[in-house]
Structure prediction request, 325 residues.
Amino acid sequence: MNIQGPEIYYTLPGGIHITETVVNMWILMAVITAVCAYLGHGLKDKPESRRQIVAEFIVSKLYNMVGEVMGKKNLIFAPYIGTLITLSAFGSLSALVGLRPITADLSVTLGWAIVTFVMVQFFKIKGRGFGKYLKGFIEPTPVIAPLNIISEIANPVSMAFRHFGNIASGVVITALIYMALASLSSALIKVIPIPVFQLGIPAFLSIYFDLFTGVLQAYIFCMLTMVFVADATD
Amino acid sequence: MDITLITRAIVLGASALGAGIAMIAGIGPGIGQGIAVSRALEAIGRQPECKGDVTTTMLLGCAVAESTGIYSLVIALILIYANPLVNLIAG
Prediction:
């Protein structure tokens, strides 16, 4: 994997780059859509197939989680949170099959964070009215209005950087260690004819950086989204 | 010797040093997460039946506390890979 950033495969007229991230994201979207279509077709009132039980288990877990964190009145957000957590988790886990994780690109995480930011501002204005929304910035005193605005903008930025930084640091560290192991085994290539150090050792790194961090960051990103949006709809 | 070449070399070296120095910020989240984990272990020791809840909340808190370390990491990555300071002396 390239540690300097996603490769640019092709540039469309107008300067739009088709990068590794875009291609991997389309692959992921196709796979996730296919899995969802497989799990979701031909549902019956009484579950007969194992497929439907799995689908119901996933959906009820998701609705339970959203209901617990955001409250029962906000269950309308469950599909959005489900989409986000699925795409985010599978985007990081796709490193296991050799694709570059889509979340190791700031454009992706910043895009998701901006969606959350717009949702938060929209529901604040909708719930409180525009006047009260503006008044919220000059509380408790008008002097700290700039601080309030900065802290509002800092939320999506810190969410995006947190997710991106965790996954990207995993990519960079794994690549660096892999290079070090490669040079170590090439020094011994006359004694042992196979690259012995690259066997196995990167797999243990992958358990932490891909499995643990990937799933944890997906969970945290969704948790923060839920908390912020639930806070805005109050 | 070309003067811009020397300037570029100095700026590149300083960028690499800056990236290393930026990562000193990793101390803060390390200490903070250590404190969080030790408190969580105390809580689990006192009430072992709350293990699941405590662990989930601790992981969430740890990941949020990590932010400052991640910011320094992003700055280090920018300094190493994007080299914004070298572009300033291009002229």
Remarks:
- Chain A has a mean pLDDT of 87.
